[in-house]
């Protein structure tokens, strides 16, 4: 079985199918990241009347999605509070998790906020 698997990998590599599959996978992960970003960017700051996007707490580049398996993803959200040692950073993280969980990923998902 390993011989067949190795042979198929080489065929994909030689024909360029491997790159095509990786490109599709990358595009899918980018689309999922944008879905998550579209949801969390509209969250309002707990202390200000602005959204997280308006305050540059989150940007498109701060969301990353990695595929772990079939319909399993790791979503990484890196956000920068407006002030160092922000006491409401945890609340922002919980809001981002709660808002984006139901909207963007309806499958097995792991989350990491940094």
TrEMBL record:
<dbReference type="InterPro" id="IPR034904">
    <property type="entry name" value="FSCA_dom_sf"/>
</dbReference>
<comment type="similarity">
    <text>Belongs to the MIP18 family.</text>
</comment>
<dbReference type="GO" id="GO:0051604">
    <property type="term" value="P:protein maturation"/>
</dbReference>
<keyword id="KW-0159">Chromosome partition</keyword>
<dbReference type="InterPro" id="IPR039796">
    <property type="entry name" value="MIP18"/>
</dbReference>
<dbReference type="GO" id="GO:0007059">
    <property type="term" value="P:chromosome segregation"/>
</dbReference>
<protein>
    <recommendedName>
        <fullName>MIP18 family-like domain-containing protein</fullName>
    </recommendedName>
</protein>
